[in-house]
Amino acid sequence: MTKNNDYKAHIEQLKRHSFDIGTYRPPSEGGSFSLLLRFTQNCPWNKCTFCGMYKRDKFVYRSVEEIKTDIDSVKAISDAITAVSWKLGHGGQADSDVGVAILRADPSFHTNQCFISVFNWLASGAGTAFVQDANSLIMRPPEFVEVLKYLRETLPTLTRVTTYARSKTLAQRRPEELKEICDAGLTRIHVGLETGDDELLQIVRKGVTGEEQIEGGKKAIEAGFQLSEYWMPDLGGRERWRQHAENTARVLTAINPHYIRSRPFVPWKGTPICEDYERGDLHLSSPHERLEELRLMIQNLDVTSKVCFDHAMNSWQHNRGGLLFRQDYEGYKFPDEKPVLLDRIQEGLDVDESTHTHVKDIMGVRSL
Ligand code: SF4
Questions:
Q1: Distance 55 CA to ligand 1 centre (A)
Q2: Whose CA is nearest to atom 2 of ligand 1?
Q3: Measuring CA to CA, which residue among 50, 56, 52 is closest to residue 276?
Q4: Which of 110, 247, 251, 332 is most buried by a 10 A CB count?
Q5: Among residues 289, 285, 295, 207, which one has the least CA distance to residue 248?
Q6: What is the DSSP string of 123-154?
Q7: Mean pLDDT of 39-58
Q8: Where are the alpha helices (DSSP H) in the chain?
């Protein structure tokens, strides 16, 4: 029978290593237990009026050495978990018995985010990583390329490496720089488009125009990346719903990204846009009005993208009481499933509006 003493050295190795993990990542990366690695900290823009994610925190540009040290720590933690597994006769697999053995040997691992993150990543196949924080493309391209290559060499099981980026930064990068970053191992980029409407982009201080979003998105696709674009139903409220829907559809059609993901707007307490709402300058749409906006956007959308509702705020109900839209990460494949989606929207409009969750019912859950 294996005793704790047999793998004590590996437990000590686990304790010695840590790396920087940020708070935010897309739901699809959480669902695939992607390894979270922070190449930069927080948001270099940090001005969008609806966003509270990094408001209290300054942007930090991390050095290549720091990032490589973090990657080495992930490798050391991963090796230690694998070694415990071999000692237990589990063939190097990170399974529940291995996890229990490590937690019994040292209960402090229950709250050790680095251990938990690497363990879950190994248990799910060690295939995907998400590079944090809000705009990794802000890194100087040669440095980004260097750390991506190092990541791929050090953790060769990775098949997908993704990150957040701003459209503006993508538009500013030269095509050959983006190609080098793609070739170095970054495979997918998640972009917060929010809206394609220029007036609304200016109001929410997104720092980009619709044309720049098109340019950035097209450049990313041409460089070889998979592209996820997030838009925000009801960002313009009742005041601007029509222009928001029409121009978002126009810009997304011009980009034709691989994924279009819906993140319905919730005013976070403490953000400037929440103050607009509280002053009465912005009126939130009702659930049916949001569906009307969604219908107009979808009707105008001419893409081959996958249109996804993989976020809890897409909480509309259908007439049998379940969620109106599938919330999986692959969504509805356009153009084939566009009629299916339009039928679902009609179904959501046919049920009594009180069946749906109103955004006001969940406001205040998050505050700064
Ligand atoms: S760029 Fe993204 S993370 Fe930064 S403030 Fe805007 S929405 Fe927030």
A1: 9
A2: 134
A3: 50
A4: 251
A5: 295
A6: HTTS-EEEEESS-GGGS-HHHHHHHHHHHHHH
A7: 94
A8: 8-16, 27-31, 64-87, 96-105, 113-123, 141-154, 167-172, 175-183, 198-203, 210-223, 241-255, 272-279, 287-300, 338-350, 359-362
Radius of gyration for the alpha carbons in the chain, expressed in angstroms and rounded: 22
Q: CB count, 10 Å around CB of 148?
A: 25
What's the gap in Å between 265 CA and the centre of ligand 1? 14
Burial status of residue 354 (CB atoms within 10 A of its CB: 0-12, 13-18, 19 or more): exposed
Residue ranges lining ligand 1, Cβ < 6 Å: 43, 45-48, 51, 53-54, 134, 166, 192
Q: Which of 41, 48, 228, 265 to mutate to test the pocket of ligand 1 (most atoms within 8 A of CB)?
A: 48
Would you state the structure tokens that stand for residue 169, as one six-digit string? 């930064």
Question: Hey, what's the torsion of the CAs at 233, 46, 62, 18, to 10 degrees?
Answer: -60
The Cα 199–Cα 278 span in angstroms is 21
Phi, psi torsion values for 293, nearest 5 degrees: -65, -45
What residue ranges do the domains of the chain occupy? 1-139
| Residue found by looking up tokens 């906006």 in the block | 293
pLDDT digits (tens, 9 = 90+) for 114-140: 999 999 999 999 999 999 999 999 999
pTM score: 0.92
Give Cα separations from 46 to 73, 97, 105, 167 (angstroms): 29, 43, 43, 14
**108 burial type by CB count under 10 A (0-12 exposed, 13-18 middle, 19+ buried):** exposed
